[in-house]
Each structure stands twice: as structure tokens, then as C-alpha cells.
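Exercise 7.
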Amino acid sequence: MNQPSLSQRLETHLGPGYQVTGELGHGGFGVVYLVGDKAQQRYLAVKVIRQELMDSPTIIERFRREIGYASKLDHPNIIPVVFSADENDLLYYAMPRARGKPLSKHLRQRGKLPLDEALNILLQVAKGLAHAHGRGVIHRDVKPANIMIETTGKVSILDFGVAKALSKDGGTLTSSGQLLGSPEYMSPEQA
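Solution. The predicted structure, written as C-alpha cells, is:
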């Protein structure tokens, strides 16, 4: 007997009001599905930990931290968590689907940006990061692929997968010494 796919398991867990319509992408430990929310008449991006990684306590803890960090943040320039679940060997969280494209694609299409557009993007990213830092969360993987430019011109930060928490005294709560993130976008002290 065949096991149901990850998307089938997700759709079953979400219930009849939701429909998985496709895969938006995948990363180191998660797959992001496009899910229709019939009741709210909207689309969500639902990030699910890959089934083969559910046996790794380290990966599971990192994914749970990502959910926790992202759930603490409520700012117009950060894609929010709508809901999450951690049960029946299924771990995921849902976010509104951003309408637009990653900054990386925008830069490939447009090349060098006019100064006013670049400053507008930078200002919105800085506002989102300031909010995260004010809540004790450091993103640690800010790069064009993790910045979404919506069709309205709004800029949002996504993917807190390698975020780090700060303690009240400014020290870190997560272990140091690991190289996490994208080396080409790291600050010199990280790399």
C-alpha cells in the first residue's frame, strides 16, 4: 500500500476547507505549498517540514524555533504566521501568500535599480528588521531571495529559518560556531 504524499497528508490535516493546489518551492528542510483557504477566499503559503527529516530532533527543533520567531513578529514588512500545527508526525505553518516576486528575480529582470526605488526597498527592509530586532530576533539570512516585492510595491521579509534569539542581556540563546545562512550575503563577522 502506498503512503500518502506530504501534500496529501497536509490537505487531510488541514480539513475540507483547504485545498493544496501546488508547490511554491522547497528549501533545506521544508516544502512550501500553495493552499486555497475556501472560507477566507484567499491563498496561503504553507511551509511543511519534509517527512524524511521528521526523525531529526535538531531539524525539528530548528523548524519549531522558526515558527516561534515568526509568530512573535507582527509588522507590515514581515510575512506573518497565520496558524501552525505540530501533531501526528506533521509540522507546518501557514502564511498569507505574497503577491509579487522575490527581490532576486526583480534584480535579474531589471538590473541596476534607480536610487529612489533601491532606497524605498532598503527602508522597508530596515523597518521590518528593526521590528524583529526589537522583539529579540535576528534574521541571519537577509538576502534578495528572502525579500518579497509585492505588486503593490510593499516589501516584506520572509524565511526566518536560521533566525537567532537574543537574551535580555544581549547575548544569544542559540548555539554559536555554526555557519548558517548564505555566505555571499553574510556580514564579515559571521563568515
